[in-house]
Amino acid sequence: MKASFHASSTGADQARGSSRACGAGSSPQPALSLDAAIEAICQKGCRQVHRDIERLAGGETVPEAKRLDARQREQLLAELQAIMAVYGERCSVG
After folding, report:
1. Domain range summary for the chain, segments of one domain joined by +
2. pTM over 0.90
């Protein structure tokens, strides 16, 4: 079921015009760990992504963000919020 979340996230991301999505291809080296964190978090499913967004917004960290600096953690939060904004409050998988 998480695969369907993965696939729909990519489609939704393309619809909003972002360069990143759950399942996006490789990126330049500086963004590599950020992209890896986005991908790993998205693989956890919709509900857990929302929980991780709440934690990051509250100043906490998540295991996937441990290697990121403060600026990258802010980018991670913004990217996750943008990806999940397409879904609103509903999650079909989790």
Report:
1. 2-85
2. no
